[in-house]
Amino acid sequence: MNHVSRLKEVLEKGEFAVTSECGPPKGADPKVVLKKAELLRGKVDSINVTDNQTAIVRMSSMAACSLIINSGLDSVLQMVVRDRNRIALQSDILGASALGIRNVLCLSGDHQSFGNQSEATGVFDLDSIQLVQVVKNMRDEGIIVGGETLDSPPDLFIGAAANPFADPLDFRVVRLAKKINAGADFIQTQCIYNMDRFQTWLKMAEDRGLTEKAYILGGVTPLKSPGMAKYMKNRVAGMDVPDELIKRMEGVAKDKQREEGIRICVETVQRLKQTPGVKGIHIMAIEWEEAVGEIVERAGLLPRPLFGDD
Amino acid sequence: MTTQHNPILGLFYCRNVPGSSEQERQMLEKKYGTRIRLFPIPCSGRLEPFHLLRALEEFADVAYLITCPEGACRYFEGNKRAKKRVERTQEIISHIGLEKERVGIIIGSKDKPQPLADIIEDILGSTSHLSPSPVLQYAGPPS
Amino acid sequence: MITAEQKPFEEIREMIAPYQRILVLGCASCVAECAAGGQKETAMLASTLRMKGKMEGEEKIIEEHTLDRQCVNDFVIRLDDIIEGYDAILSLGCGAGVQAVQEMYGEIPVIPALNTEFIGETRAQGLWVENCLGCGDCMLYHFGGVCPLARCSKQLFNGPCGGSVDGKCEINPDIDCAWQLIIDRLSSFGALDRLEGIYPPKNWSKKQGGGPRRIVREDQQK
Prior knowledge:
The complex is a heterotrimer of chains A (310), B (143) and C (222). Chain A is of the alpha/beta class and 310 residues long. Chain A is built from twelve helices and eight strands. Chain A is globular, with a radius of gyration of 19 Å. The relative contact order of chain A is 0.14. With 222 residues, chain C is an alpha/beta fold. Chain C is elongated and about 65 Å long. The interface between A and C is medium-sized, with 34 and 28 residues.
């Protein structure tokens, strides 16, 4: 199999990319992954697979990515530095490439104290920026940490995350620059609810020429209820949900709240589509994969582009 | 084994408490005999939990600290700190199964400073329901 | 300094259960400063153990003593005069103290009464905070005197993560975001540009690469 990254192809052709997310099951059944992936077939260009998100033990991201690839879809391997040292991370990078995985998203990972293994040690041997640099050196220079050469380099499109809403704002863009200088080809942002702050951040990134150096994908998450909006605002650090949005969710009848959440999400996507520095979106519909197709369709992003090998 | 029913009091008190001169102390000791033991200290803030614990371990059914009136501490915050230490001591003894009330603190009133003799009467009254301390019932290892 | 906290009382009671004559041994150094194992705390623990023992009708003899330092052999050896007759030592030293005493008196079990916590500072009365991991390769110059290893929950060398809000850490709002502190400090030095470059992966061999670490100084030896 000579896989290519679908995500990379879409972005390089100048198409507005759409990615989504699949949280692997708390179990060993491959059918759960395949079922979620099937909901996304034809709706997105690539599927992110989370890596023990919120520090809860789930099927490995690499295994789930492999299942998705074998069903003919593209996937993004999320890798967190919380659980593996540099030996394991580099080994898994090689393994992922061998399995045909072509995209990797390098993350710090949610702290272990949040999950169901709060007594675990946090490894954090490398940080996310160092991991980006390590993968880039493996791919482009064929070397691992310390300088030893590889027999054959991995083939991976490298991503990193950015949070335009965390503090301190000025330094957020410095950090984005560091990620891009380290070798990030694409950037996925934290969920965008506060469009003003996002635009401020994006302008700062543009001023540094960063939007030309990497593809920025705006993160969106449809709200299910005003309760969820409040939870994200108050309980999730670095999440910025404006009060107007909470009021808007509260202003509709209970049975219309999900519809309102999707409508808000579609509006956000449409604004992002018209924003020159943004090259795509990443939809994080948490345990609500069914919503993705609807959002993509209503935002006018269907059909997804086809390429020679389709 | 002792047969007395009135608890034996160990009392640590700040020398600033009214009615606690050397002469008055001797009078109080005469009056109560073995029922109380009095320990004047320069400042209640100097009292450590182990002083109270030692008293309970060695002779007292009840150990109390009496501070000078609030705001009157010569060392500014002595009586505030004392309160926290007494609370800590209460935690420790309740953890080993002794009643919390066996340790206490009387913070002197700013408006109506009470003499030591009255305070002792109050403590005797409020702790009279306590049974003899199980720590002091121990007969010692068989020889 | 090394900080520590006393173990739960019941855990201590269980560990000393098999022994009859116990020396409760304090240490007047770091653990005294952090109010865990100095003379006062040793007196409190010994007294509490004796009281509990009496309440349970036990026949233990529990006595106390405090050394200036448990982690320095020249001090530990002073126990020679009093150690006779004890069948266990309950140490309120840090982990280093417990082991040094055990090394010196191999035939007597030395039981830890404290959980050793971290290298830290006394920030205020009753508040101790961790600020050094003893990594063997100090990086404080690069980070404005704030260690990202000891003070960032995710040990980021290129922080801050996306959970930094209002200068606080996402793990616990009582914890300052180390990276906010680093950025503020370097800004005040006019040296924020030190953070523009990517800080490379840490050389951990200075901490654990050669197994347990030793420092050998011939000029200090006899």
